[in-house]
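Lab notes, practical 5.
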Amino acid sequence: MDVNNSVALVTGANRGLGRAFAQRLIERGARKVYAT
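Output from the prediction step:
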């Protein structure tokens, strides 16, 4: 999945699967927005 320079909105990103998913997106080049 190519997410380079994409903006990701991940709900529940403060813990658990949401956090792991958000971190993986960042590693792959996405910009992030955390929403709880």
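Observations recorded by the TA: The mean pLDDT is 85. The chain has one helix and two strands.
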